[in-house]
Amino acid sequence: MPTEKYFDQAPPFPEDVPKLSIPSISLLSLQNGDSETTQKMYEACQVDGFFILDLSESDGGKLLLQNAEQMFELAGEVFALGSEILETFAYQPPHDLTGYKSTGKLRTDDGKLDLIEMYNINQDDMVGNSPPRRNPDPIQRHRENIKEFIHLCHSVVTIIQHRLEEQLGLKPDQLSSFNSLHDQSDTSVRLLRTQTQTVTKESSIALGGHTDIGTITLLFNVVGGLQVLPANKENLPANWRYIRPQPNCAIVNIGDTTVEWTGGVLRSSLHRVIKPPGEQAHAVRQSVAYEVTSHESRASEDPTEQFKIIKLLSCYAIQSSSSVSTIIFQKFPLYLPSPKILQLSLNIIMTRSHKVTDREYPAEGEMPARENLPRYFAKSGPTDADPRKTKKDGGGKGNWGRSGEEVHDYGYTMNNARRRSNSSIQGLADFRTKFETIEPEPVFEEKLHGPGDVRVADENAVTKVESTSSSAESEN
Ligand SMILES: O=C(O)CCC(=O)C(=O)O
Ligand SMILES: [Fe+2]
């Protein structure tokens, strides 16, 4: 979320609405490797997969805030072009999700049409990983600003990943190396806008419930309307909680790819955008999201990597209810994941699958009935799909979707549809895993480099990337 300047222009967020309790994490403390802050962030990533990132104390964070404001201004210019011009840059689902999506292209959870306009700017285009694309004039004019925003967001994502690597007992850069800025990916800067919703429209859901498909999302918003379904809650109207936008902060959420990579240790939660609460419904709602996606071509076929092992492990354990240790030694006699991840992952598999009221997994000893199978076998995915397959013919590139729910029957939808409770492990197996050891790339970790100006004069000085989005449902 940008600075007070934007907050001052918006009506106040009401006090009397149910809010999700998530911690505010100081970016500076993360940069400095503060253990208490790191632990708090790690816990938040395990509980709901959402936290507030306070950018205000960090030099890099402050620069990012200024850049985020520029992105808000850019969004104003882009959407001011009007739908006639923007439609000439329309996204081309399912293969190319860069570009403009007008309202009404997606179904919301209540079967109505979405109310949100989006413009997806392609990171590869901006940083020069791919041939230049045709873009609306404001985007062309602000390429340098967009590039700088991308570099800064990427640095922040890398810092978060470094702290998570430490907590998870992973090697340094094991997560962040999958998100190199130098590799092609479907990472995008997404501009979003919803018109005022004072007049009750058919639906109050602007963007249906979904989880983000990618690695991590950094979200900047000012006006409320973002809601999260807390962990293991049924998808009922009374269970959704608002996230209150905070000045000088970003909202960070874990995407499904990270859930997969960590064997379900970290969580992605269902979220959606509804009519802004109270007086805020009079405001035009704008947000900017940096959605990191790991590049598909980076998915290694090497079965020895620990993430893949954990992913497969999770699937086998869920499906067979066999002893997980038997499975791991039968399938992968030579390899073991980080003991910490393994332990946490196994705990999660065992406890989550038995606790959730609306069970997605069979209880011990039961044959898995189709109704109880994870999402990729069930309603929102091809029922015969191999859970270890990539989402190429499922969600497709980028983060906009999965088959079957698009209004125009494009063969994809915006997000990862989820029908029941908000248990992120259900998404474990339908994302491919990316491996590979990448050269370390510096970020603005002040402990290491001192609080300097992180302007991207040298592109190599701030690096690493990717994220996405997936979908679901809701009511209301
Ligand atoms: O606009 C928002 O607050 C959330 C948008 C979102 O969830 C997404 O683009 O994936
Ligand atoms: Fe999202």
TrEMBL record:
Species of the source: Penicillium ucsense
Gene3D superfamilies: B-lactam Antibiotic, Isopenicillin N Synthase, Chain
Protein name (record): Fe2OG dioxygenase domain-containing protein
PROSITE patterns on file: FE2OG_OXY (PS51471)
Start and end residues of each Fe2OG dioxygenase domain: 171-294
Family according to the record: Belongs to the iron/ascorbate-dependent oxidoreductase family.
Any one Pfam family match given in the protein's UniProt record, by short name: DIOX_N
Annotated Polar residues bias: 465-476
Location of region: Disordered: 376-407, 443-476
GO biological process, one term: small molecule biosynthetic process
GO molecular function, one term: oxidoreductase activity
Compositionally biased residues, Basic and acidic residues: 385-395, 444-458
